[in-house]
Design goal:
Residues 34-291 form the Leucine-binding protein domain. Residues 71-81 have a biased composition (Gly residues). Belongs to the leucine-binding protein family. With 464 residues, the chain is an alpha/beta fold. The chain is built from 15 helices and 15 strands. A seven-stranded mixed sheet has the order 7-6-8-9-10-14-15, sandwiched between helices. α12 (314-326) links the parallel β8 (307-310) and β9.
């Protein structure tokens, strides 16, 4: 099985090695046979950095060299390290001088293209150095603020995820989008992405609420966004109007039948559980939370949105789930959506059954995982996918240009490149486009694929 996996992964790399005529705007040291890899190879993130370096080596050479030492330089190349073959030149961002020193060393070595660094902060430190040198850089961050011509971000960005979700939700008839997001960089990025996506698709402007930490702030925020008190008042007013047309004694009997302690049962919450305890007994002057068990009518109107984007994880997400149930934001009326981060703990999201998130399809990376395990005897983390993709891209462009460098026209070719998670493409402004799948959270936890990623095919070897 290991041999089959390595063979399949070799075929994936071969499919990435498209031909095509190298255009103008050459970047990188002409004819350079070294690929600079800038990662944390010592310190607290050494394990992750070494794993990503191993993935890049696997893409470039088909083998994984020994672990890199604290100075950041490992054995060059791969099997045989034959003359003329691409070489890996590794530099450690965790030593004195950090990413800037690692970048200086890579440029001094004449590396033709830079893979890394790992974080948005490190990318911001050295992007100007890369551009000044005319050396293309493929950073592993998902921080879109770092994207610029000549500096590409390879991470799956919030805007990629959100646009895929909005597209799928619009296709099922959703028209009114809203977001309830943490007031942090991820939340802000998700909110901005939602606004842009709705505008681009001709949808109404999204309603976006950013919340502070704490259960009380979350409960109040969801109540405000969902217009809970107004929905209760409207429904109770409609019920009262109907009762006024009846004789007083009959109306009283219908509103308060013998032995009744509440009007009627509330609608089903997102997790299908009885939410009376979590919703009852609270009332504020602002109408943050009424007392649903005592005042909610048989059926509330839908919230003023039919698709809701969330961005929380951990305890804040649990508080949000509780607040959605208390304020009658039910899955039969609203499509809940969330970030791809949910994939890591989908087994614990039963309370969000029916919710969607967008992410690469893990089925696409099986060959890579098997080949990586065969070489290193350990399972790669998802970030290793990016390092493999970057290495495969560098190899593909080197083949396409006959080793003449890394021209912008070839780096940004429309056909893209074959990657671990599917075909991806670089855009002239420094972003990366990827096809993502949609997954739906299941009642018992876990998720299932509900919309596969669009299929694109990278050019075959020698194609233009």
């Amino acid at each position: 099985m290991a041999l089959t996996a390595v063979t399949a992964l070799a075929a994936l790399s071969a499919c990435a090695n498209g031909g095509g005529e190298a255009g103008s705007g050459a970047a990188g040291a002409a004819g350079s046979k070294t690929i600079g890899v800038i990662l944390p190879l010592s310190g607290p993130n050494a394990a992750l950095g070494s794993e990503m370096l191993a993935a890049a080596r696997l893409a470039v050479t088909g083998s994984v060299s020994r672990a890199v030492g604290p100075q950041g330089h490992g054995a060059q190349g791969g099997a045989g390290s034959s003359p003329g073959a691409l070489q890996i030149d590794a530099h450690d961002t965790a030593t004195t001088g950090g990413a800037a020193a690692a970048m200086q060393a890579a440029l001094a070595s004449g590396d033709g293209i830079i893979l890394g660094p790992l974080t948005g902060a490190d990318t911001g430190q050295i992007s100007a150095m890369a551009r000044q040198a005319g050396t293309p850089m493929l950073a592993f961050t998902s921080d879109v603020a770092q994207a610029q011509p000549g500096v590409w971000i390879l991470g799956v960005t919030p805007e990629q995820q959100v646009d895929r979700l909005v597209s799928a939700a619009q296709a099922e008839g959703r028209r009114q989008f809203a977001a309830f997001l943490p007031d942090n960089p991820l939340g802000r990025a998700l909110g901005e992405a939602l606004s842009r996506s709705c505008q681009a698709r001709g949808l109404a402007p999204a309603q976006i609420v950013y919340h502070a930490t704490g259960a009380d702030a979350i409960t109040t925020g969801v109540a405000t966004l969902s217009a809970y008190q107004s929905r209760v008042d409207a429904a109770n007013g409609a019920a009262s109007g109907a009762s006024d047309a009846l004789p007083p004694d009959l109306a009283a009997a219908l509103n308060h039948p013998p032995g009744a302690t509440s009007a009627v049962a509330a609608p089903r919450p997102l997790d299908g559980s009885d939410d009376t305890a979590s919703a009852g007994g609270q009332s504020t002057a602002s109408g943050a939370v009424a007392t649903p068990a005592a005042t909610a009518p048989a059926e509330l109107a839908a919230p003023p949105f039919d698709a809701l984007l969330l961005g929380d994880t951990g305890l804040a997400l649990k508080s949000t789930i509780d607040a959605l149930a208390a304020n009658k934001v039910t899955r039969d009326k609203v499509r809940i959506m969330g970030p791809g981060l949910w994939a890591a703990f989908a087994g614990k999201l039963g309370g969000l059954a029916g919710a969607w998130y967008a992410a690469p399809d893990p089925a696409n990376r099986r060959a890579f995982v098997q080949a990586f395990v065969a070489q290193t005897h350990r399972t790669p983390k998802p970030l290793a996918d990016l390092a493999y993709d970057a290495g495969a891209l560098a190899g593909a462009v080197n083949t396409a240009t006959g080793g003449a460098g890394y021209p912008i026209s070839e780096l940004t070719r429309q056909q893209g490149f074959a990657g671990v998670d599917g075909v991806f493409a670089l855009t002239p402004d420094g972003r990366t486009t990827r096809e993502l799948a949609i997954f739906e959270v299941q009642t018992g936890g876990g998720s299932r694929l509900v919309s596969a990623a669009a299929r694109r095919t990278a050019p075959a070897p020698g194609a233009s």
